[in-house]
Amino acid sequence: MNRTIWMCAGLAALTLHASTLSTAMADDAQRFVQRAFYGGLVKLMAPAVLKRGDSSADYEEMVRLKYGGKVSAAHVLIDYSGAVNIVVRHGPQPMRMSDLPFVLEKFKLLLRRERPGTIWHEIAMRTVNGHKFVFLDYTTAAIDTKIRNLTLMSSARGRMLAISFNFTQWRTARWLPLAKRAIASIKVGD
After folding, report:
1. Which fold has domain 32-188?
2. Where are the domains of the chain?
């Protein structure tokens, strides 16, 4: 009988701890913090729960597994589960602002042809805080789930800039408004 009481007390304490942890993570998702990339070239407000990949060995390993070394951990913000992330890339590919209409049309054709199962929500040109972007909003199939992707592409200092927000489909109700808020905060310097 005593053993059952102690097990119930332990389970209650664990449930309380998990509830407190879940509430803390929800608070961090609602709390936004300023993030800067590439020496301040790109700035945005992001949910505090998304951490820089270089903040711990666990995050660095998660980024390496997820992206295979294709991006620096310092340019990835990722949640504790790896199911929500923001990736910022300022690549070596040359790009001018005048290239954006061509990029938009090219992606419309390429992605529709290469990923026929993709669900498209929006493909458009957008201006965010005075900077023009190609904006792609779509859902793709992964091995075990669907992924919502919001991608912005532009030119910064004559090179391609890509910013993507990705989260699993079942997190859409919570994360889509947060991603839109982060997108609205993007500032690109020259």
Report:
1. Protein Transport Mog1p; Chain A (3.40.1000)
2. 1-30, 32-188
- What is the spatial distance between Cα 40 and Cα 108, in angstroms, rounded to a whole number? 31
- Rounded to two decimals, what is the model's pTM? 0.79
Closest of 146, 154, 165 to residue 188, by C-alpha: 154
Q: How far is CA 150 from CA 9, 69, 127, in A?
A: 44, 21, 15
Distances (CA, A) of 93 to 17, 65, 160, 161: 48, 24, 6, 9
**CB 36, CB 151: distance < 8 Å:** no
**Tens digit of each residue's pLDDT (9 = 90 or more) over 13-52:** 333 333 333 444 455 567 999 999 999 999 999 999 887 7
Do 68 and 121 contact (CB within 8 A), yes or no? no
Q: Give Cβ neighbours of residue 133 (< 8 Å, ≥ 6 apart).
A: 100, 125, 126, 127, 152, 153, 154
Instruction: Classify the C-alpha dihedral 63-156-100-133 as positive or negative.
Output: positive
Encoded amino acid at 47, one letter = P
The token pair that represents 41 in the structure block: 């070239």
